Amino acid sequence: MTDNVLNVVLGLVASAISAGLGWLAQAVRRRRKVERVREFFGLPAGSECLIVVPRSVGAGSHASTVTRRDAYALMWLAGLVEECGARPELVAHDAAHRGLGAKTELCLGGPVSNERMAAHVAWGLPGVLITSGPGPGSNVIAVGDQEFAVEPDRTHVLLARIATPDGGRPVFLVAGQTGTANQAGVRYLVAHHRELARRHGRNGTFALVLRVVNPAAYGPDMVEPVADVTAEALRRPTTAPTTAPTSGTTSGTTTGTTVA
Length: 260
Description:
The chain is of the alpha/beta class. Helices cover 37% and strands 22% of the residues. The protein has helices spanning 3-41, 68-83, 115-124, 179-200, 215-218, 230-234, and strands at residues 48-53, 87-92, 104-108, 128-131, 140-143, 146-149, 154-162, 171-176, 206-213, 223-228. The strands form two sheets. A seven-stranded mixed beta sheet has the order 2-1-3-8-7-9-10, sandwiched between helices. It has a three-stranded antiparallel beta sheet with strand order 4-5-6. It starts with a helix and ends in a 26-residue tail after the last helix. The longest helix is centred in the first third of the chain and has 39 residues, at 3-41. The protein has a single domain (42-234), classed as Chitobiase, domain 2 (2-Layer Sandwich). The radius of gyration is 23 Å and the shape is elongated.
């Protein structure tokens, strides 16, 4: 074998080795990235995840139906779970009679349309009060001394991750003031989960309020963070708030009594 041929062979071998090492390094990085996502959501490969479905509230709505916007949000959540290699299980809000920590739980919808959400907020975020009613100023997310009401050009959504006792699987809450806000909160979680993990830790509790800007024009696409209310949400009020029952229909999604 001449020197020229030998140099060509050695060059090809070196290129193949370099390409193989580059592919291996990329594969390791992708695997680490996926593992970080799985850790944040508590979704190891092959595990099961509970997606709690709210009911559609409004005149003529059947108890087992959901709004179109909530259906879109559920599809995004199911896609996220499957990307992690886990299996989603859809459960109606009034049929999820089980404890916390055994499975990751993704709970969608405000407490008026989701009994499970009402229980989670009361247990894990005692400083949060979410009300819903027929008149202006009655559909409010209140945390500490801050209030976030529905306005003509904006709605809000509470996005939270609650760590469960003894290192169990986490609970994620997406409680929007409308169906569009629910969808916007889910899309924000899917798009920004890496940023949320860096900022709040992959095993911590956080509570954020997001603003959906001009949903009539932009739908769920224009979302911006408003406040990190984690400290206030975890602080239990010194006196229990009193709420008066209200009824009626709010814009887009909710009807019913005021729920803490």
